[in-house]
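Consider the record:
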Amino acid sequence: MSQVGQPTARALMRRLAVEQAECRVPSLTAAIVRDGRTVWFGGRGRVGDAAPTAATQYRIGSITKSMVAVVVMRLRDEGALRLNDPLEEHLPGTRLGHLTIAQLLSHTAGLTAEPPTAWWERTPGIPAADLLDRVGPEELKHRPGRRFHYSNVGFAVLGELVGRLRGTTWLKALRAEVLDPLGMHDTTTRPRLPHATGYAVHPWADVVLEEPEHDADAMAPAGQLWSTPHDLARWAAFLCGDSEGVLCPDTLAEMREPAGVVDGDAWTGGFGLGLQLARTGGRRLSGHSGSMPGFLATVWAQPSEGVGVLFMANTTSGMSGTLLTDLLDILDEHEPRLPDEWRPVPADPDLLALTGLWHWGPKPYALRLLPDRGLSLEPIDGGGRASRFVPQDDGTWLGLDGYYAGETLRPAADHLDLNTFIFTREPYDPAAPVPGGAGDWYA
């Protein structure tokens, strides 16, 4: 399966072997995806009497959440719901009706992390109706929208929402709309052979204890699924943008936008709409981790580089936390991606005439023409507001990112009107309606 060079494969396998040996993992698999294809797979340890393979199943825990979130976003794209809709509009009768769908997706609803039941990861689940009856105002730990607070309960609610709107179960909707179209046929709610057994490794001796496995029922959308390295590699390719028509690329990009972050001097982790986010080593990663009794798994995608990475292990705890970023570092060191070849492209003369130097008052900006008739406006000195724009049918341009995301740019021959801000060819052009003392400037 490896499509990287032998020295690269050896370095990657050594890092995997060190993780498995030093962290005492019964079995461990990892894979790297590049440009939609698995370019490296490695497995160490034993599942039964054999080494794990790309077809060996492991529990993936909360990675389940990211898959459920895709179905919710498909419903949004179809017009069946809006992200700002209160839950009551689509799932009436709960005591959580004022929470919005976006808040539930982004873990900003303020909802409790765990359900008011026995330890749900280790005990048989209860039906959704019973769970919803138990979850009331006392399970709200923070004001909705105030802060990021991870909630397994929130995704149990979203799974029930998916089932209600699709007229089936969350699992059947997920399989029909996501798993089957992506070819993820070995992703299931209960294990099938060959699968790893979940273990807890004794902290002071090299012995293992088998961990429980059961049907979580109402809590299943928060962490029920089992999968294989092969299937999870396909999921990593999807997160990188190889969506196979399952989700609009713009919607997937929306899911990666930070909605809440882990507070600190500079955020390194956060959450979008159903996707975990991380910034580390200059990389912006999106995906999800998973943890259930006896199992750990994580999948990260770096869409800017078209690369994804994952691991699956049958241990309750003890992993280093750096395995996947180390694997990416090794790939970058041994086989860095070559930049795409630059090629000239034809340009609309009218658009070409707009490019060049513009001024926001005295501050100089550069307007550049991008592929597909896009525009980029950014300060010459690199500091300040910068945004990209895409053309609209009415002759305007819509902001994609930065300060002007969602705002309208209206170009003219002698000025740019950007949501009432006027950019001119000369600083403080006396003929342009620019506030800031144009008369004094030219006095």
The domain at 1-343 is CATH 3.40.710.10 (Beta-lactamase). The first helix runs from residue 6 to 22. The radius of gyration is 25 Å.
